[in-house]
Design a protein that fits this description.
The chain is of the alpha+beta class. The protein is 22% helix and 30% strand. The chain is globular and about 85 Å long. The two termini are 43 Å apart. Bound molecules: beta-D-glucopyranose. Beta-D-glucopyranose binds next to α5.
Length: 916
């Protein structure tokens, strides 16, 4: 589902859930059709793609009892009900996700149009769904006719004169070819990839709204291509196909300091257009030695350094057939730098997801204007100016301001993060960079002749286009702001891979951060396809031969030994994605890597399953003077990953493995207790994180668990009801507090606005989640600029607790097939509305205090069931839609558990009122 970029945000509010189909009639209707977890994906290579849909109904207790899928090779055939590729016939099952295509073998370029109908609980047949489609990519290596092409001359020239340049930032190359179309075209599909970043144009138009194609992988191993339907852009007669190729992750500056050319020195482009004609013939237009290249207006383009655009050097009509390219040169062909596998990109593309307009414009020093866009995000600035020929306008970016109102850029470290636009001098000029992004809330603009207008600079947020899955609102504006900050920090960091930060010279796929945040991420947007992609970077391309997982994925830039809690991402992330989306194939795909990792941990541990003398561990990163001993983190995470791997083995029917890893878990747990837990339940290190890890991973039991719980709460209390946890402890702190029955303490931490707390940063004006609890304090100002990002999502992991507790939305089966709705009311909140769009449909839990009563409005997706736990001392105190419980349709009282009524519900919407 594409996020249309039409919503101009008010600062401080995450966008609403976009509507999909919402059927409120009788029986069931199927909609929101997806293939391999994407809407209308093009260019798949999976021979048996999986099909998913959502069923909806206006009735309660609706279930799907059967389905039928038709797949046809054309939209017309499908419309006629002629399923020449596959007719599943009636399948008496309630499956709605990951139904495997079992039709005719699929060929390269094949388009598959499909629809589904379903039968409800009473055997009533639905209408057919709206049709959807997917297409296949280039399935055989020999289908690729295109050469890798590049334009090395300007780069080689620049390399020969290094002293002349402060930094090696070569001009961006433009490529073109022309071709004729003499007969009617029925379909045109363009397949494109690059070692670098490519933007494709056809007959004067950009062919898509994607950014940063083909995304970041370990290019020495694999590179992704994307397929685009360009039928509408092909014209009879002369056509021109063009491309712009920038350095990107392949050869631009990446990671720390001044490192570039990590995968190769010379970017390459590969593109191939497949034309199908009405007479049944086909032809390919592919990159080859006849393509021509030149340089143009983009003087520099780099993720970390920014983009420099000289509009005077624009190439007229370069992407149209009317262009005179006689001065262009022939391209370089081939590459010997890398030989990657070519595959279709499994995830969503990066797109513009939102616009931000300046909320204020100041002039801290004469001629230097600072625009506050109201939200810290990642993306670019769109510039609209009227200037003189050669007038140079410079844009710099920052997350925060210095006390004097100038922009604070020290924390960007070696990232120059500067865009330059040189005016052509012909009326109003609009420009937006294509091959860079910055992490920012503030834009500094210099070189204008007048004060900027409100539309001189517009912020364009870029992010992997993962569909929005959440809505959150409650009576405490601070918590609403917190949710907004988490959402935007995720958006800013999910740019093809999950990164640590979007602004400084780092922006790497840190594994520890990803495992800490993946569950919360899945509650904000649908990240299934996004993580499907990154798990390949991490596991297939990133795992070391000995089984260890890296610090960052794609690897290249940092240590290939992630160490405890970072390397464990290789187990925790696939397991989390499986649990949230119920995708067993994905779990099976990563299982061997998970098991290899556990064997690696076992092999390097002592015979007692304790840490070896030497190993690398980042510790409880950025805690508040409460360092947790590394051996605690090592052993706790070893135990946890082992248990998850045992659970994965169980799901996959590998019973022997399950038994083996369960036994190993028991052994590690015993070792943990023996080595680190004292008789009185004190755990070595005695930090909050020590107790959190032991309780979260069930390493202490019985009396020891009670004591650990008590020490945890005591430590929080002794710190004036404050946390002391870093990345690792914070992930589970709140969840553990609820697990031990101290949701009251969790709420206390959540409502805090004194240091250290989430609220503290919000009180300092945060619009995103900070890397450190003390990123800025009134006493000390900014923390060490060597490491002080204002957009790191790790502490945003608290969003899971917010959904689990404020909304009380809990999954009781993989993929939300069954739910528990158990809102935990809190005295400081008068209402909360929490929604989550699971891959089976919308789940909503709204509650509101109303005089002496509380109202609960609960939505359960069709074809799922839920238990609902309402706070009531007697069932007689509860009504549903004005009726006594016993008379409420589709509601069954299971039992009273103390002051909680446990109700069983089928799907539908319910309005409960509890008198208390
Ligand atoms: C990154 C982190 C990462 C850490 C490892 C930092 O530079 O920004 O988010 O997890 O290093 O300790």
């Amino acid at each position: 589902m594409a996020c249309a970029c039409t919503w101009i945000a008010a600062a401080g509010s995450a966008p609403p859930l976009p509507p999909i189909n919402s059927y409120q009639g009788k029986g069931l209707r199927a909609g929101y059709l997806r293939c391999e977890h994407l809407v209308q994906p093009l260019g798949l290579e999976e021979p048996a793609p999986r099909l998913s849909w959502i069923v909806e109904s206006g009735e309660r207790g609706q279930r799907q009892t059967a389905y039928r899928i038709l797949v046809a090779s054309s939209a017309d055939l499908l419309d006629l009900g002629f399923a020449d590729l596959w007719d599943s016939t009636l399948v008496p099952k309630d499956d709605t996700i990951d139904v495997v295509y079992q039709g005719k073998p699929l060929k390269s370029h094949q388009r598959c149009y499909w629809k589904v109908k379903v039968w409800d609980k009473d055997g009533r047949e639905s209408q057919w769904s709206e049709p959807a489609m997917w297409s296949m990519g280039l399935l055989k290596a020999e289908d690729w006719k295109a050469d890798w092409i590049g334009y090395d001359k300007p780069r080689e020239k620049m390399r020969k004169e290094p002293a002349a340049h402060a930094m090696f930032l070569p001009p961006t190359a433009y490529f073109r070819t022309q071709f004729r179309v003499e007969k009617p075209v029925t379909h045109a599909t363009l397949y494109a990839t690059a070692l670098g970043l490519a933007e494709l144009h056809l007959n004067g138009k950009r062919i898509c709204d994607d950014f940063f194609t083909p995304g970041w992988t370990d290019y020495s191993k694999r590179v992704y291509y994307r397929a685009y339907d360009v039928t509408g852009l092909v014209q009879h007669g002369d056509n021109a196909l063009g491309a712009i190729l920038a350095d990107g992750w392949f050869s631009g500056y990446v990671g720390y300091g001044h490192r570039r050319d990590l995968y190769g020195k010379n970017p390459r482009l590969k593109a191939q257009m497949h034309l199908e004609f009405a007479d049944g013939s086909t032809t390919e237009i592919a990159t080859d030695p006849n393509w021509k290249a030149t340089t143009g207006p983009i003087q520099e383009a780099d993720f970390l350094q920014g983009e420099n655009y000289d509009a005077r050097q624009e190439l007229d009509n370069w992407d149209q057939p009317t262009c005179d390219d006689s001065a262009w040169e022939f391209v370089n062909v081939g590459t010997d730098e890398v030989h990657p596998l070519l595959q279709p990109h499994p995830g969503p593309p990066v797109r513009e997801i939102q616009e931000f307009r300046p909320q204020s414009i100041t002039e801290p020093t004469p001629g230097v204007y600072v625009l506050n866009l109201g939200q810290n995000f990642a993306g670019v600035a769109r510039l609209k100016v009227r200037g003189d020929t050669g007038q140079k306008i410079t844009l710099r970016f920052a997350e925060r301001l210095n006390p004097d109102g100038t922009i604070y850029t020290k924390n960007l470290r070696a990232a120059r993060a500067t865009d330059v636009y040189i005016c052509k001098g012909s009326g109003v000029e609009t420009w937006e960079p294509r091959f860079t992004f910055h992490g920012f809330q503030y834009v500094e603009i210099t070189g204008l002749r007048h004060k900027p207008a409100r539309d001189t600079v517009i912020g364009i947020a870029l992010s992997s286009d993962t569909p929005i899955a959440a809505e959150f609102a409650c009576s405490d504006p601070m918590l609403n702001q917190l949710r907004n900050n988490i959402y935007w920090t995720q958006r800013a960091n999910f740019i093809d891979i999950p990164t640590d930060c979007p602004q400084r010279d780092e922006r790497l796929g840190w594994t520890g951060d990803a495992q800490v945040y993946v569950r919360a991420a899945s509650l904000q947007t649908d990240v299934q396809a996004f993580f499907t992609k990154w798990l390949v970077d991490l596991d297939e391309d990133g795992q070391r031969a000995d089984g260890q997982f890296p610090c960052v994925a794609p690897v290249k830039v940092a240590n290939d030994d992630g160490g405890p809690a970072w390397a464990d991402a290789g187990v925790i992330c696939p397991w989390t994605i499986y649990s949230v989306y119920g995708d067993e194939r994905e779990l099976a795909k990563h299982y061997d890597a998970m098991a290899r990792f556990i064997e690696f941990c076992r092999n390097r541990s002592t015979p007692a399953m304790l840490p070896p003398a030497k190993y690398h561990c980042f510790g409880d990163w950025l805690n508040i003077q409460a360092d947790t001993p590394k051996d605690i983190i090592y052993t706790a995470y070893f135990a946890y990953s082992t248990r998850l791997t045992a659970q994965a083995a169980e799901v996959l029917g590998k019973t022997q493995d399950a038994a083996k890893y369960n036994a190993l878990f028991d052994k590690i747990r015993a070792a943990f207790n023996h080595a680190y837990v004292a008789e009185d339940g004190r755990i070595k290190g005695n930090t909050q994180t020590c107790y959190v890890l032991a309780l979260a991973f069930d390493l202490v039991e019985g009396e020891k668990a009670k004591q650990a719980a008590q020490y945890l709460v005591e430590d929080i209390k002794n710190r004036g009801w404050h946390l002391s946890t870093g990345f690792i402890g914070t992930k589970d702190l709140m969840l553990v507090l609820s697990k031990i029955g101290r949701t009251d303490v969790a709420y206390r931490l959540l409502h805090n606005d004194t240091f250290p707390s989430w609220g503290f940063s919000i009180r300092q004006g945060a619009t995103s989640i900070w890397e450190r609890w003390d990123g800025w304090t009134p006493e000390k100002g900014f923390q060490d600029p060597g490491m002080n990002s204002f957009a790191h999502y790790s502490f945003g992991a608290v969003y899971q607790w917010m959904v689990d507790n404020i909304g009380g939305i809990l999954r009781t089966a993989p993929g939300y097939k069954s739910l528990l709705i158990a809102p935990q009311l809190d005295d400081k909140l008068t209402f909360a509305n929490v929604s989550y769009r699971s891959n089976r449909g919308l789940i909503a839990s709204d509650w509101k205090r109303d005089g002496g009563k509380t109202r609960f409005h609960i939505t359960i997706p069709a074809n799922t069931t839920a238990l609902v736990a309402l706070p009531a001392t007697s069932a007689a105190d509860i009504t549903e839609s004005g009726r006594a419980l016993a008379k409420a349709e589709g509601v069954k009282l299971v039992r009273m558990e103390g002051a909680t009524a446990l109700l069983a519900l089928g799907s539908g919407e319910y309005s409960f009122k509890v008198a208390r």
